[in-house]
Amino acid sequence: MAPHAEDAVLSPTTSLPVKDTYRGPRHGLEYHRLRTQHDLVLHQENGKLIQSPLDLSRTNPPLRILDSATGDGQWIVEVAATVSATAELVGADIAPQHFLPAASLPKNLSLITQSIFNPWPAEFKERFDLSHQRFVLAVASDVTAQEAVGHLFATVKPGGWIELHEGDMETILEGPEHPAMMKFRDVMVRAWRGLGHQPSPGPTLEAKLEAVGAVEIALKVQNLRAGPMAEDRVQGERAVLTLLGLLDSIRLFVGSKPGFWFSAAQFDELRADLEAELRTVGNSWNFHIAWGRKAE
Fold first, then answer.
1. What pLDDT shows up at residue 29?
2. Residues 6 or more apart from 113 whose CB is under 8 A from it?
3. Which residue stretches belong to region Disordered (predicted)?
4. 47: how many CB neighbours lie within 10 A of its CB?
5. Any idea what DSSP says for residue 25?
6. Which pTM was predicted?
7. Which spans in 89-178 are helix H?
8. Tell me: the pLDDT tens digits for 94-133?
């Protein structure tokens, strides 16, 4: 994730500078959080990377899969291990400086520079059997998020699938046992909305897919449990680290801005309270997976 900045980065496919237009935190700590979140969600899905009913064994014609907002490229690299070597795999992100080393990538996988807020290259139009994107629409307004979904849907071939994963950080457990989690939720929501973002895009995914004309839309809602509320100890710890990492990212991204309404001391206190509460009481939040097909 990266701040809305005027910084220019170089695309791996061109020598021209590419403006980094991402509107969220982008730093090493955030990428570590995203990797932990990846492991958390993958385990929750029993190791299943793709929910759409796509035949991953197909070789003729070769599968084509696009991963938008790929981050460092970990998801699409793991997909490569589940499909034929004849498949064409593309990961795209606005920050190529964080891509996994090119020498470590499968030969049938390429990583390119692309913003979710821009139309995709003309050669990508109706090219992919699956266009996948996860955990990025929170950095968009509702309007620009809908536009981004429209851009991505344009890359799906007739009969192909679009799949979106997004969180819902407002649906948490509330009550006298959860004051720190409730405060964390309130701080995050206020900070995110103050930037023109949406903290909980997950519940809007079905409507967004309907708006771009997808058919056979399906939805799965998963509940992630932190700390002692998780049945699996490792999963509970991943969930705790994901939430603490999100708070740390918010602090680094907006907490240092002049005049920000939540002080460094308040962040310190909230983090300590949140960690203690999550490890002793726990909490939960939801994420949504929605997919739909492009009519032939």
1. 57
2. 9, 11, 12, 13, 14, 18, 92, 93, 94, 96
3. 1-24
4. 9
5. -
6. 0.88
7. 142-153
8. 999 889 999 999 999 999 999 999 999 999 999 999 999 9
Distance (Å, rounded) from C-alpha 186 to C-alpha 16?
Answer: 41
Strand order in the sheet with 88-93: 109-113, 88-93, 64-68, 128-134, 156-168, 283-293, 215-226
**Contact call for residues 136 and 208 (beta carbons, < 8 A):** no
**Per-residue pLDDT averaged across 86-91, rounded?**
98
- Using alpha carbons, list the distances in angstroms from residue 262 to 222, 252, 257, 259: 31, 12, 10, 9
103: which DSSP letter?
G
Element spanning 291, H or E: strand 283-293
The residues spanned by each domain of the chain are 8-293
pLDDT, residue 5, reads 29
Give the per-residue pLDDT at 31: 60
**With contact defined as beta carbons under 8 Å apart, do 137 and 257 qualify?**
no
Tell which CATH architecture fits domain 8-293.
Answer: 3-Layer(aba) Sandwich (3.40)
CA atoms 38, 151, 125, 101: torsion sign: negative
Residue range 24-58, pLDDT digits in tens: 444 455 666 777 888 888 989 999 999 999 999 99
